[in-house]
Amino acid sequence: MTALRVWNKSPWQRPFSISAYSQNAKLSSVRGGGCAATYASQHTCSKRCPLFDTLCYGYAGMVSWVTKRLNSCLEARPNVIALLEAIAIIRLARRGAGRLYDRSQARPLRVHVIGDCLSSVSAALIGQAVRYYERIASRAWTYTHSWLEGVKASDWQGMSVLASINGVTSEGGARPAAAIRADIAAARRLGYQRYAITIPKHDRGHKLQRRYGLNCLPCPAQFKTASGDRVTACDCCKGCYVPSMGKYQAVLFQLDQGPKASA
Fold first, then answer.
1. Overall number of domains in the chain
2. Which of 96, 112, 193, 214 has a C-alpha 20 to 30 A away from that of 163?
């Protein structure tokens, strides 16, 4: 099946999806104006990802519906899926820029709420599309397990990418700190300088903390106030995609079952 034939299918039959405004409360807020987001089938994910079969965010809540639909597509070639997704990102940037009076109104793009890039070719395709998006629209970012497949940070063409490091066992407990440090070192050898580390639970509050030899920021969007509202969302926080991450090298994420931690 050619890429063109897949593209010409109904959006409900494609192995990727893109949203100009994500309804995900963690990504978008009324105050911040929201985020755009892309999704890809799990054919693009590394099977070496320790969360793949059990604890993946793609199986949580309403996102699981999207995951099942994307996975049901017959197109399973990761590079073809990446090409189609890259085209969609460029089209979104052009469409958004055409109707915006002010570039500051453009929405940040969260790439791969579901999905990843399995090869350097896929990463380059997405990275080039994101560079175009950032040039005429807004910032973009993603998290990746592709370092497990040998994909280097440079393959992403300068895109803001945090290497995903698993700190949780298949039973939901904490992995040994030495194993997490070893994974960080392996990702660093491939050029990754920033990390997204999963942990079982935010147990040290929401302030900057030292873990695994890094300064770590617990994801602010996973905390709530006394009134039950989220402290912030990705469109306001910008902690994963603004270049000034100098104060911390990693963002900590508890297993995503909603904002259960208290600020």
1. 1
2. 96
Mean pLDDT by groups of 10 residues along the chain of 263 residues: 54 82 80 86 89 76 84 90 94 70 71 94 96 90 95 95 91 89 96 93 84 91 79 83 76 68 44
CA distance 190 to 196: 15
The DSSP bridge pattern shows strands 209-211 and 214-218 to be antiparallel
C-beta of residue 84 within 8 angstroms of C-beta of residue 16:
yes
Sign of CA pseudo-dihedral 218, 233, 198, 125:
negative
Q: Provide the residue range defining the domain that includes 115.
A: 3-262
Report whether 35 contacts 28 (CB < 8 A). yes
